[in-house]
Amino acid sequence: MGTRLVIATKNAGKVAEVRDLLGAMGFDVVSLRDLSDAPGIVEDADDFAGNAAKKALAVLSAYGCAALSDDSGLEVDALGGAPGVRSARYGGEGLADAARNDLLLAALRGIPAAARTARFRCALAFAEPGAALQMFDGVLPGRIAFAPRGVHGFGYDPIFVPDGYDVSLAEIPPEEKRRVSHRGRALAAFARWVESR
């Protein structure tokens, strides 16, 4: 069994995306979904990196073992970068993914394809006992579709078309999405750092 690593999230989609890679790297992976005494963490930083760091350090403090956290979201240029750091709360707490997507599409009504540029951004933080906090990032540029498409993924995946693709993230097979996504890119940077130690 490898080094215990807590993924600082209860988001099932994020856990699924992260677990395979980290398990293959020799980590014994658990998430906050697996722990009954998980700390409550308020994500109130002004940017993704601040929220990721806050979560990783809170989990390190609570359990005394290595922690990996991310904060990620969608930045839409025509909306001034919104929903941004509030991506998971866009439209209000507890809103379902489909309703959140509908709200964003409504905000972009009348915006032509060329002006629907956007990006997914991921900030990843790794904290371990006795070491400096490490930060990694990943960006996936693309555009917002005119309607949801696809059944894979979660969040804004059905309305986001990555650069170089004619299909949404939700239409890309999960294995390929994990490789090309913003989170996949941040995790690849983390993996390279782990291997270099």
Count the strands? 6
CATH architecture grouping:
Alpha-Beta Complex
Q: Give unreliable regions as ranges.
A: none
Number of domains: 1
Order of helix and strand elements from N to C terminus:
EHEHEHEEEHH
> What share of residues is helical?
25-40%
Number of helices: 5
- Evaluate the radius of gyration: 17 Å
Average pLDDT value? 91
Strand arrangement, major sheet: 2-1-3-4-5-6
Outline the biggest β-sheet. Answer: 6 strands, mixed
Q: How would you classify the helix and strand content by structural class?
A: alpha/beta
CATH class: Alpha Beta
Which percent range describes the beta-strand content?
A: 15-25%
Principal-axes shape call = globular
What is the straight-line distance between the termini?
A: 19 Å
CATH topology: Maf protein
Structure description:
- With 197 residues, the protein is α/β, with parallel strands linked by helices.
- The protein has a single domain (4-196), classed as Maf protein.
- Helices cover 31% and strands 22% of the residues.
- The protein has five helices and six strands; from the N terminus they run βαβαβαβββαα.
- The chain has helices at residues 12-24, 48-63, 97-107, 174-180, 182-196, and strands at 4-7, 28-31, 66-76, 117-127, 134-144, 160-162.
- Strands 2-1-3-4-5-6 form a six-stranded mixed beta sheet, sandwiched between helices.
SSE blueprint and pairings:
Layout: E1 4-7, H1 12-24, E2 28-31, H2 48-63, E3 66-76, H3 97-107, E4 117-127, E5 134-144, E6 160-162, H4 174-180, H5 182-196
Parallel strand pairs: 1-2, 1-3
Antiparallel strand pairs: 3-4, 4-5, 5-6
